Structures are given as C-alpha cells and as structure tokens.
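Lab notebook, bench 4. Still working through the backlog of constructs that have no structural model yet. Next entry is a single chain of 261 residues. Request: give me the structure tokens for it.
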Amino acid sequence: MKKAILLSLGVLFTVLFGLFLYSNYQFRSLNDRFVQLVPGMEERIALIDIGNSDRAAIARKIVEIAACNPRVIGVDLFFKDYDKENFQDSVLLQSIREGKCILGAANKGIGIHNVHRRFREAALNVGYAELNQKKGLVSDFYVYSDSPTRRDYHMAYLMASQYDSLAASAFLASLEGNNPDVVISRLTSQFKIFQPDELLDCGMIRDRMVILGYLGPEDQFRTYTRYRDGIDDDGPDMYGAVIIANQVLMILDKPPTDLPE
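Model written out:
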C-alpha cells in the first residue's frame, strides 16, 4: 500500500514538474516573441503628456510643437464632438490643421469613428489607434481595415509612412496576414517624455516624430515587458502612447522574421 502511494506521488510530481517546465518554456517563448529590447534612448520619437489639459491647452501645445518643426505630430486623443461656437474647439481645429497632425480614432470593426468630421477634415490623416489582447496581454494589431469604399490604416502606420515612406511600404509588403504581433523594443524609460507643464526643448523635437497623448493610469495596458522591467504586480504596465511608439518603430525597423511561434 505504501509503495503504491509513493509511486502515485512520484507520478504526480513528475507530471507537475513537466507542466512547470512546459509553462516556463511557453513563458520564455512568448516573452521573446513579444519583447525584442534595443538598448539606449530612442532618438526618433518624443512623447508629450497632456495630463488634464482642456482643448485650448492642447491646441497651444500643438502650436508649440509645430514651431519646433517635427517630422510628424500624432495626436492619440479622440475628439468626438465639435461646436463651432466654442472657442476651444475653434482653436483646436486650427492647430490640428496648421500642425498637419495625424489623429487617432476608434475602429471597432465599423471603420474610423469617434472623431468628428470637422477634425477629420482638418487633420493630415486619421488612423485607428487600437490593439488586440490575448489572455489580458497586448498581442497584435491590425495594420489596416478595408471597407467597400476605402482602406483605413493604423495610426502607427500613418506616422511611420510620414517619417519614412519606403520603410513603411516595405513593412506592408512583408506582412503575412494583417495582424502582426506588437513587438516591444523600447521600454517607457527609453523615450523622452515631456510632462504637461514642461517647456519643450526644440532640439529634442526637431525632425522627429511626436506623439501627444494622455499618459495616465487609465490608459495603461498589460504587456510582456512587465517581465523585463522589474514589475512584480499583475496590473497594467505600459501607456497606450508608448505602445503606439513601439508600433511605429517596429514598422520602421521591420522586426525579426524568425520569432518563436
């Protein structure tokens, strides 16, 4: 009887240990698949946090950014309504037009929406700013979506195209399917992030890409970088604007083609 119990315990231990090794292998495989870190500060993209700014303050910030002559300004904010009698809306509309901004928008499978027509018409372009998640972790994104009348692209692809059209076109041509993995190559600490009230340094903006957005806790997602950045809780760990910046870079740099399945 005792021998049978010991044998059963041995089998159970072997099974559990095998499951642990398999889970560990899967974890490492997924971690290497979605995280391909590059050392050093990223010099091509600057991020600007709008905090709790109203539309007039956002407009002033866009004008300030544009005066520094960036290559492209991406605005990761949804402007769903517009009132022509409202001063804030008027100055925001003008700043988006003069700043030649690319606006982020929702998609939800029904085409670009959640951005008022007047803002869409004023912008250089509008792209959806969404991603897909698996098991609660950022996984992949759709580079484009087709409708009977038009093709809409992701905001990251539009920004990359404005910065280097040849690299963006090469990425698009290399796609196998339309939903590549979101490969994180830079952590939040590797980007220059201007705080809402911080004076802009044009030397860190000129000829670069700029992403203006809300870098607050409500716009954070769980990514595999938590295992590379010393995060020991199970909460969100990366701002949406930082993920978009990584999507732009994976388009420009073309991620490795031999990632683990």
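Notes after review: Helices lie at 2-34, 55-66, 87-98, 117-122, 155-163, 165-174, 240-253. The first strand starts at residue 45 and ends at 49. Flag for follow-up if needed.
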